[in-house]
Amino acid sequence: MSVIRQDDVIQSVADALQYISYYHPVDFITALGEAYAREESPAARDAMAQILMNSRMSAEGRRPMCQDTGIVVAFVKVGMDVRWDSTLDLQGMIDEGVRRGYTNPDNVLRASVVEPPIGARKNTRDNTPAVVHTELVAGDKLEITLAAKGGGSENKSKFTILNPSDSVVDWVVETVPKMGAGWCPPGILGLGIGGTAEKAMVMAKAALNDPIDMHALRARGPADDIERMRIELYDKINALGIGAQGLGGLTTVLDVKINHYPTHATSLPVALIPNCASTRHVHFTLDGSGPAVLEPPRLEDWPDVSWTPSGEARRVNLDTLTREEVASWRAGDRVLLSGKLLTGRDAAHRRIQQLIESGQALPEGVDFRNRVIYYVGPVDPVRDEAVGPAGPTTSTRMDKFTDLMLGDLGLIGMVGKAERGPLAIDSIKRHGGVYLIAVGGAAYLVSKAIRSTRLIAFEDLGMEAIREFEIVDMPVTVAVDATGDSVHSSGPAKWRRQLALEVS
Question: How many Å apart are CA 247 and CA 47, to the nearest integer?
């Protein structure tokens, strides 16, 4: 019989959340390195190189690989013979671990959790509470799998109930392109098939924590229908040509994982949840002997991949940028930005809109004329950092504000990640603006281009406040040019045609 102590659970959770903030699972790095070696698309290779280099930098610097350090999800198996030495319940112990893990002064993690989910949506400031799934099992151990799920990938979760005669494969292949690139491929897809609606969703989430073994599976061959489906989905999804960051390429998914459960004779529930290029999870077991000990991976486990800016990249001074210069850029061009860059996300845009609608002036110092804004919510800095990891957020959330910003307020450009919708693209074309993308999953690498930061407005919004970054050679790609051409349409279409020709 094991006696599990409260402090051991709290310490283990806190340590594990620090660990996964800067260490990718080795199987993910290996699979991504192999995909990089196979990739033929220059744009996708460049994005993968940034992600791999960012991963190694994060491991060496012990700073988050992504600015979105996620909402914590815990899968807990409690042995029925476990005894507790605790004054807190299980949720309370895990939440205290989250609190300590996210506020560690040596590696502060971004607090992203807000409550209530509607209305005030005030940040809880310590990323609590966690989402905890508990299962009672035989034995006297406590098993915990922790994941930190970023919003970009979580927001692309899908669910349906098919007819029993319908094809799961067809539904998934039809659904993945509709997810866009906001989930930061290449990543992993988790499927839950069967059970009930809520069971399918939990199974899909849990599947994302399984080891990547697609190449081993293909080598030995499938043993059952589920394994055959995994291979079929892997091949068909990659044949879509979506590629890294949605830029077009050979690899969109590194693996497809499936959990299944018996279901009602009239039903076929299917849940689909992606994991992004900042896949984060770890598993540990407590047996009463003390907190978990997590061995760091070896730096030799990382592929020997380095990234440097393309020699073809144009250097741009944001402080003298004009619409005439922007008009000469074309979708797919690589750019290195230097100068003063504004920041702002959902909450800042909404507040700007509310001020204008109510006839109030914008705060002193807020002037968007001929400026570029970066959709980012950075991690707080530590030690001598100007800013913590500062990768882009999904830009489609700002689509409804684009016409206001480009038209009424005179903004000239935007930096984010993933595709823009028709509304935003039309506005970019009409106003002669530009949309640029940084690589999602390269937040620590991007932050090295930021030399200083100062608060401009809306301090109460925390990570979503408007700031001004002074940057030097920040790497971005023109995603939507002033003519309305989008790489997220042209890139995948090109590679989809090429892959189809190779098959035929």
Answer: 9
